[in-house]
Amino acid sequence: MTTSGSDVTVESVVRRVVARHRGERGALLPVLHAVQAELGHVPQEAVPVLAEELNLSRADVHGVVTFYHDFRREPAGRTTVRICRAEACQALGADQLVSYARQSGLPLGETTADGSVTVEQVFCLGNCALGPSVEANGRLYGRVGPDKLGSILNGTVSS
Amino acid sequence: MNNPSHATATVYVPRDSAARSVGADEVAQALQHAAGAGDFALDVVRNGSRGMLWLEPLVEVVTPQGRVGYGPVTSEDVEGLLAAGMLDGADHPLRLGLVDELPWLARQNRVTFARVGVTDPLSTEDYEAHGGLAGLRAALELAPADVVAEVTASGLRGRGGAGFPAGIKWKTVLDCADELKFVCCNADEGDSGTFADRMVMEGDPFMLIEGMTIAAHAVGASEGYLYIRSEYPDAVATMRRAIGIAREHGWLGRNILGSALDFDLHVRVGAGAYICGEETSMLESLEGKRGMVRAKPPIPAIEGLFGKPTVVNNVLTLATVPVVMAEGATAYEQLGVERSRGTQVFQLGGNIAHGGIVETAFGITLRELIEEYGGGTHSGRPVRTAQVGGPLGAYLPESMFDLPMDYEAFAAAGAMVGHGGVVVFDDSVDMAAQARFAMEFCAEESCGKCTPCRVGAVRGVEVIDKIVAGTHRDENLALLEDLCDLMTEGSLCAMGGLTPLPVRSALTHFPDDFLGGRRLLDIQPVQATGPRTEGTA
């Protein structure tokens, strides 16, 4: 398989990433993070290459990829919005944000048909005194009400 | 220039991610823009947060009288603040006064958090000028066993929640004969209501590096790993930069500060698994495996990372070690009560008016924290309950708020201080829903290794649903009790073992929510703007 617009194969990306982490003890997680950073997800074709490179069984690699919430087996939308549903944010109405997203046609765990947005839940972003909290493409927002979530989902928030 | 009394004013705007979540970057940009336009002469320093999070973004200006605070500041306020003479500490509706003298801060006893919010987190000059490295220098003068003895004498207990004495753990590692030993810092702060580890890593990263280096000297370790959860990208970036700077200055690497100590430190990023906050799961994850709990024994101090003797401590524990070594065990031990020595960093979150960091000696009551420091709820409604010690901690009713915060008093009352996180709820909370969530969370995040946790949590959700629906209520209440016993006694680690704590406390203190006796209040959620439903249900 090739990624769009170039002749970079999954295999070549994986081998290059592994080479970069060769000297590290127990390198599978840093390697998976790096593969996902380059490809946007950890494709199935990466598993046998990882197994071969790191001298692990395919089952071991598959087991790790599927254990951790962060590793995706399919690409996410261009924007990923994560709504915190841990207790501190629940105490300030996080569930209303989840309902709002659902009513806007963005249920948790799903990506819009045009591939623009994926909405997910997360348990704690460490912003428990300024909840409800939402993270969008790595950026943290505090005191988020439905209006602000709407702006974030529409990509119109600048502050 | 509009600030004649200063050549160039120094203005602090936090870089802490909580402050950034409510606009600190935009405030800093607006200030820099004003400076760039030549209207005002100012330097912006991005400090950590003082921990008064309801005042963020909290802007501080250095004046001859001290640092004057303004907050919470939005980028739209900046022009008016500058025009009003903020750079000279002038009056303005957002002016808070001298920050060090604000009662909320002045009443605290900041030991671990002494520098957080005060200094530029990545300035080595700032760090040393504010007492940094004194602990490491003192430790390097001592033999490893004497460092361990000092930490033991301080009474410092693990701040991650379990409260195990740090010195005893260190002695076990020191006494192992292996050539290769590790120091691992558990920075997988996954519990809701806790953010002190994040604030230390973002606000005073050299302190954690110094603490880990002291631990390495004390036990004979040559490598360290800092396992940070992926939900904390700012902490990851700050720690990586701080480690690079520390290496350049000879604070890490070979012959640290000219001594015989060799120690290097690596950041590892988690991948979104709550269970990796459990120490043995974290070790599995560091080894590149699924984060599944290990049975103990063997304890990690003897067979830890890659089977080698390993110190595993939480961020706050390791970050407190430098001050213990700098000031001496006695100074630290004299703070606190009974067997809870030193200070605890309480974290006030959830539905609270004045949320943030309260570092104070053990023994303060929950009521003082919630009412005096916290100022009641953010919503303005009555407080109904507080969950203390994270998602595996008990929900306490207001009638128990006079309990002193110490490990033993809380344990005796069927609760836990844990890591000192306090999450406040107002009277709109449905406690049956919270109990159900505790089970649901356990089902979602269980590593799956042991049956009581993996299956018990799923069954727990079902049984609570039946109780709330009124289906064979007595039988199902008995079944829930039985299930909670089994999970408590039969789980390998605290995930399954403590999930019954929030469930049982909710049931014990708020039975009406489960039994249909309390009609749930017809309350609009705090920030909802949807169509209001008039009338009663």
Automatic annotation (TrEMBL), chain B:
InterPro entries from the entry? NADH-UbQ_OxRdtase_51kDa_CS, Nuo51_FMN-bd, Nuo51_FMN-bd_sf, Nuop51_4Fe4S-bd, Nuop51_4Fe4S-bd_sf, Thioredoxin-like_sf
Q: Which residues form the NADH-ubiquinone oxidoreductase 51kDa subunit iron-sulphur binding domain?
A: 432-477
Q: Tell me which UniProt keywords the record has, alphabetically.
A: 4Fe-4S, Iron, Iron-sulfur, Metal-binding
Pfam families to which the protein is assigned, alphabetical: Complex1_51K, NADH_4Fe-4S
Give the source's domain of life in one word. Bacteria
> What Gene Ontology molecular function terms does this protein carry?
4 iron, 4 sulfur cluster binding; FMN binding; metal ion binding; NADH dehydrogenase (ubiquinone) activity
Signal sequence region: none
Could you say which protein family the record assigns here?
Belongs to the complex I 51 kDa subunit family.
Can you say what this protein is called?
Answer: Formate dehydrogenase iron-sulfur subunit
Organism of origin: Streptomyces canus
